[in-house]
Amino acid sequence: MKPIAIEFSGLKSYKDETKIDFSALLKSGLFGIFGPTGSGKSTILDAMFLALYGRLPKGLSSSDF
User: pTM for the complete prediction?
Assistant: First the structure.
C-alpha cells in the first residue's frame, strides 16, 4: 500500500485542517517522515491508522487527542 494523500484535523498538534500530499514523494519509491521531537510525525501515522481501521492505535484513547 502506498499513501497518496491524507486530510485530517483535530489530532494533537494538527488542530486545523491539514492536507498532506505524498504523490511527489512517491516518485522516488521510498520516503521517510522526519522532524524534531514533538513536530507531529507520530500523529500523521495515527491519522493514517484511524483512516484505515476506523479506530485509534492500541493503547491510545480519544482523550490522548
Answer: 0.76
